[in-house]
Amino acid sequence: MKNLLAYTLLLMIGFVTALYFGFYHMMPKSATTFDDEQTGLKDQLVFKFSHVVADNTPKGLAAKKFAELVHEKSDGKISIQIFSNGSLYSDIEEINALKENQVQFIAPSTSKLGMLSPEWLALDLPFAFSNYSAVQEGLHGAIGQRLFGTLQKDGLKGMAYWTNGFKQITSNKGPIQQPADLKNQSLRIMQSDMIEKQFKLLGAKPYQESFNSTFQLLETKKVDGEENTISNIYSKKFYHIQDYMTISNHGYLGYVVLTDQSFFDRQTPETKRILLEAMEETTAWNEKHAEQMNKDQLEDIKRESPIAIHELTPAERQKWMKALDPLYDEAEKTIGSTLIKQIRELRARCEHSPIHAFQEEDESK
Length: 365
Ligand code: LMR
Prior knowledge:
The chain is built from 14 helices and ten strands. By secondary structure, it is α/β, with parallel strands linked by helices. The longest helix has 36 residues, at 269-304. The chain is globular, with a radius of gyration of 27 Å. The model is unreliable at 16-39 and 361-365 (pLDDT under 50). Strands 4, 5, 6, 7, 8, 9 and 10 form a seven-stranded mixed sheet that branches. Helix 2 runs antiparallel to helix 10 and helix 12 (326-335) packs antiparallel against helix 13 (337-350). The termini are far apart. (2S)-2-hydroxybutanedioic acid is lined by residues 52-53, 59, 91, 109, 164, 190, 211, 228, 232, 253.
């Protein structure tokens, strides 16, 4: 009897051991695996940064840089998760997502803030800035401060201005050299009433649509063309499905990095310091790299596609400016004269400074 019991016990131990080793690889590992990197994760702050462009763009790279700096400065205690290409929210949804604390940082183009306060549309005035230094002078100075002030009523905090560059026009319908060439051309534009007025004034048919629907609109020929910076035209491959591009530099496209004021107020002084410091360093980095990136990608477009490119001559630029000038008088009435006066003054001061975006090489010849 004793022997029987001993045999049964041995058999059971053998059976359990065989079961354990035989099925070990199928057992859930998380409960048993210890990972050094996981230590302290429960204390980590995770913030979401949502944007709509590709990673290899001035905004995409700046968001990445910001995340790296925050990680470094907080010894990994604060993590910024980036959602690019509109993978989380479209440009139409992201401001609400920020207000509802679904995401903690966004960087919409300033044009899209016209939905909150019309003052932002002043930055969309045609040819408002003639080069990158004019943009920086305006946004780091009184114009930028004034616009940041408008965010308070919506409970938002402007953390920085990031730059992309100057907009160009692409089309499938025909080359665009004179303002009249835009007549009857349909174009995808950003959500900005100022941009809409600008194209209507030239007889074009502008459609305000989300950024991430642009490729499809062009591909299915729902619109003839669009306006954007080289980096967006390049990274979203618009140039693959467009026959003509005009280097017009007719408008500026830059970003305002936003967070929700009450979210920011809830952070500890140390977290605030880290976020602000990282943002300041990122902004300086972005200003240093955006222009070159647009220049390099223009060369890539020339190398990679047969798209016909026309660059406005200084005389043609003057013609375009003249055709679009009535918008300034109108904007004084709708946006307010102080801001428009500041923009006009900046434009007058900088318009004759030697370098327009992308014309550097020609003018040094
Ligand atoms: C656009 O909608 O064309 C741009 O605002 C996209 C971007 O964020 O650069």
